[in-house]
Amino acid sequence: MVTASRLSLLLSYGIALAGIIPLFPWIETFPRLVVASGLLIGILQELRGRWYLKNWQFNLALAPVFIWYALQYSRSNPVQPVVSVLVIMLAVRLCGEKSIRNLLQINLLALFCLASRSLFDLSPSFLFWLALLLVLVPASLIMLTFYAQDSTMVFVRRELNRVVMAALLITLATVPAMALLFPILPRTPFPLWHVLLSPQAGLTGIADQVEPGRTANAAVVRALAFRAEMPQQQPPPYWRATVFNRITGNSWSRNPSVPSETVVCTGPLVTQTIYPEPSSSRFLIGLDTAFEISLPRIRMSPDAAYEYPRSLSKRTGYTVSSKTGGLLHSKTGINRAFYLTLPDGLSVQTRQLAERIRQGGRSDAERLERAEQHFLNGGYRYSREGVPTGKDAIHQFLFGSRKGHCEFFASSLALLLRAAGVPARLVGGYLGGEYNRIGGYYLVSEDMAHVWVEAYIEGTGWVRTDPSRFATNAGVLWNEHTQLDLVARIRLLIDAFDYRWTRTVVSYDFERQTGQLRLAGAKLQELERLIASGWNMPLLFLSAIMVLIVIIKTRVFRVWLSREEQLLRRFKKVMKKRFGTGLEIENKGLFEIAAASGDKQVLQFVSRYAAVIYQDKKIDKATLRQLHTLLDELCQQRP
To answer: ∠ at Cα 448 (330, 499), nearest 5°?
Structure first.
């Protein structure tokens, strides 16, 4: 057994923890220490039953905190100060004495803290904490109602079960409203706080340059880069993000002043929905090559690279329409000089190799083929470790170690092609991905980042060529098929749930809302055509049946009432008939009605009825007959 006051206190502590725990990793050190101290001090004071400080003293201590965080508030830092104040206010309430008002404030502040979590992250774990609060808060409100009436009221297990069931019913009653409001409330394609926050560096994203030879070992980062919902592709897909068109020394970068040209994508059409992880990159990823992306205010460059006005530092999603032929046909031709620029200090051997390629081919296509043959027959090996470094890294790779990763292969081929008179550029993106058959999408991680080459063939256009596939051990790059074990299947199942959460909740935007409205409009038009096409009579007949059902249910409503409820309804009718409206039975209890009537038979009925009902028992048939007999006798008496 436990009292109402103790239960109210325990529920409020549970609500406070449910609001703070999901927010705890995102707040600063000082609010963390304050809330942990507040929770500990509050529990110790509850155990001792003594409060060393009054609530007004705690409130006075909040004043400098408000001033401090108000001074920190700015356009570039609007979230942390507000969230920190919320957390500290909750900590202060946990320290102070717990009146009913204070417990309600704890519940409200905990809800605000959980809502603040969505400003930082909206992962599926948010749903768990929200569901927990949706159960705990109604239970707390019910218990506080009893607390307000009698703080010493004692609850046994059976009564506690009823409180829990009532809280669950309240929560379930809100689900239809939430399901209705979620798709119709207005929203933007990106969270509103994007306008306030400055772009933050993310964990993923395409690099802004390619520089082979910078380090001897390439790091393998298995963090998720993006998901792409689409049918499975064969062979492994290329994911295009950016184009590097300028070389300085060993470093390839992007010159934003791309020469004007008109390109046309070729190949089979594939539509995919991309959900990138938060990153500092502004380039949008799509299956090679995208010709349409469903995001507002994007900029498409002549080389088919798409840029967003700001970094994708928050979760979002967009639809891409792509052609997968690996060919960009140029209608207007290109600026060959722009794509033939070479760096200073090109080695003599590199120039000689490029000259042999140029002389051995009479056209761009033949020169490209000869350059590819060099990598195919040269014994080059793909490796992320022990690769050449320094300013002459490309020279060492071509004529020395013959070992390197995709940056070496792509940079070397593009350099040889340019030196041989074939326009070339590097394309940065990703290769392959793990296909999740449960969710129907690709999982692409950062270790799948890849660089390849686009060479311009006169009369054809930009042709994709990947020299890494000519490595003697190219199978390590092309993700050869492996059988999934049980652990991998469970991981994919969990990731499928995370993906559905991102798609259904996080990335639900105005565009998808309008799509739902169009679908609803189409259904209404179908209904109008159905009515107009001769279905008037069946629909009228169905409506009449429904009205009849409502009438029958209303008339025989008493069938669904229990014996006790039917008996009580008859008693009130008899009392109104016997004593009229002057008795005013609606706002009185049974014994008050009996006392006001002054009738011994009424008192006898009430006593027998209450003896059963107030002991939480069912009326047996014998007692039911006796009570109905009393009511019959009351009906026969004259007023």
So the answer is: 100
